[in-house]
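Quick start: what a row looks like.
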Amino acid sequence: MKWILGVIFLGLAVFEVDKKINSGNKGHHLKRSYQSFAILELFTSEGCSSCPPADRLLPHLASEANVIPLSFHVDYWDRYGWKDPFSNSSFTDRQRGYAKQFKLESIYTPQLVINGEYELVGSNRSSAEADIKKLLAENAPLQLTIDEVKKENDKLSVSCRLQGDFQNCDLLVAIVQKHAEVNVKAGENHGAKLSHINVVRSFLKLPAKEKMDFQVSVPSGIAQDNSTPDKENWQLIIYTQQKDDLKITGAAVYDP
């Protein structure tokens, strides 16, 4: 009975639009827009021995289609023996912005930020699931729709539109590598084979407007996933974030 009620509740709380769209190449591709969603931003590092449990938990937290994970690999662990191949100083800066908003004394890993509203240790499953449940019961204040995606060489040309209150928002654009495995040869995780999902490889921040056209790079290092060789190993995630309190207000996903 509880399971049936849960399905009914999800159907009421989530209005998810799945459409096949032409990407400018052969075939059709899937895009999703969400009325209810949870964006999971995991700040992690291959140089941190506390991070692998959070990396392993992330796909379990994102078992529903409207729970959208992103792995931001920070760079401040790189000086302790192992340089994370996915680390980026701009991701550290993004984490510092959250630390200021949440009034934290310092940044740390693994940290999970959910919809810009909740922050917690990335391996804390019970707290993460509780926060996700609360957010999925709310309607998003903004509807974000991807109209067209065209890929030429290593560039994506994207058209999207926003409905709702976007005047105080940025549009965030992420190209993620859906799956990655790395053999760590130094540092705290020396000898470990680490697995990651939705590793952020390209990231843009643009002022939000009602209709938007932009380009984003697809890194050449993103290969096809060997476990599913017929599918591309990247995904486009777009979301809006308020400039003042950093709350995330809308989201859309494109799968090639």
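That is the whole record. Helices lie at 2-13, 51-61, 89-101, 125-136. The chain has one domain: 15-255.
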